[in-house]
Amino acid sequence: MSLRTGHRLRSVLCGAAVAALLGGVLAPPAPARAAPKCGPTGAPAPTERPWALDRIDPSGAWRITRGAGVTVAVIDSGVSPSHPLLRGRVLDGADFNNLEQLKGQCDLVGHGTLVAGIIAGREGTGTPYSGIAPEAKILPVRVLADGKRTFDESIPAQIGQAIRWAVDHGADVINLSLATLDDPALKKAVDYALDEGVILVAAAGNQEENQQGQPAYPAAYSGVIAVAGVDDKGEHVGSSVTGDYVDIAAPGLNIVGPAPQGSGYLAEPQGGTSFATAYVSGVAALVRAAHPKLTPKGVAYRLTRTADSPPDGHNAEIGYGVVNPYRAVTSLLGSRDDAPLGAMPKPVPPADPLGWQRTVAIWVAAVGGLLAAILLTARPVLALGRRRGWRPGRRSEPADA
């Protein structure tokens, strides 16, 4: 190869290398993959405060806490993070239903997003709507592709996996707006969560989903707060499953909440225990924020003992009554599992406005008593002295002086 030929070859190679380098630098970047448009868009925002929010009225409890520092896992159909109510509230979660890369933030049916809005919807969005714990965070865990078929045999174990994942990723409260079959793996996951101090709130179930009328799980497990639904008159919703395991109730009919796509709202006229569960989870988040040392059993005790109780104290329809956020957060309750915040000091006796006069009177009486005693003692001595010729200021002389 001649020198010229070699030089030309080197020039060609260098030119190709430079072109490749420039091509790599100047080539336009690949377009970012747009997030999928998940779920329905809903209707315009409500112009009046929903009856359910009026009935629960968390504003009294907000003077103590709004749920800051508490994470509520929503094991459901996913939660959209884009709605104004939920913007900045939804964490990266998990998906157990074939959309792993979306981190639980795709909700194709709108159920999970509505539930999350009830729990932790922000204030100040220009609509008369907010969540019960508006400063709590939502951890979305997607297990239901369409919100149905929860009684399929494969679902309970999957829900159990989701519970374990939520516990291991920082959940303080787990909302389970679903009902399924009893299952050993699900039971173990529930026990694991309770042992780790995580509060579990679950739907008591709806009649149309549970055709056989059997207990709904995980609500029927010991330690799980089972929630029934009431209407705007405070009466049990007919579709809400009844049972001795029902602990408490919340609004479960004619429910409104955020849609997963856009800024609209979904209306659920038929309601259900799913949405009642969300209201109780929001109150549980307030209680956990105000009383962080309470065990799950202590939180359940506080919620049920401060509820708006039915006349008979407890029944199979609404448990101990409708949840009451203000009393749940502020009431002083005493038990080994739910002690008041610090020991109560001994009562201070009221100030006595006549105290100094009483003190003077006591001293006068004491001095007067002492003088009386001296006089009583001196009298016989003086009488004896007079008989012997003793006079004050004069010394008696001996008889033989």
Notable traits:
401 residues; alpha/beta; Rossmann fold; seven-stranded parallel beta sheet; 9 helices; elongated
Please, could you describe this protein's structure?
- The structure is a single chain.
- With 401 residues, the protein is of the alpha/beta class.
- It has a domain of 280 residues: Rossmann fold.
- It is built from nine helices and nine strands.
- Strands 2-3-1-4-5-6-7 form a seven-stranded parallel sheet, with helices on both faces.
- Strand 2, helix 3 and strand 3 form a beta-alpha-beta unit.
- Helix 3 packs parallel to helix 6, helix 4 runs parallel beside helix 5 and helix 6 crosses helix 7.
- The chain is elongated, with a radius of gyration of 38 Å.
- The termini are far apart.
- It is a single-pass membrane protein.
- Belongs to the peptidase S8 family.
- One of its GO terms (cellular component) is plasma membrane.
CATH H-level superfamily of the domain at 51-330: Peptidase S8/S53 domain
Structural class: alpha/beta
Mean pLDDT metric: 83
Helix content: 25-40%
Shape: elongated
Query: Which strands sit side by side, in order, in the main sheet?
Result: 2-3-1-4-5-6-7
**Count of β-strands:** 9
CATH architecture of the domain at 51-330: 3-Layer(aba) Sandwich
The radius of gyration computed from the alpha-carbon positions, rounded to a whole number of angstroms, is 38 Å
Poorly predicted runs are 1-34, 335-347
Strand content: 5-15%
In angstroms, what separates the terminal alpha carbons? 170 Å
CATH topology of the domain at 51-330, by name, is Rossmann fold
- Provide the succession of SSEs: HHEEHEHEHEEEEEHHHH
CATH class of the domain at 51-330: Alpha Beta
Summed up, the helix count is: 9
The largest pleated sheet is described as: 7 strands, parallel
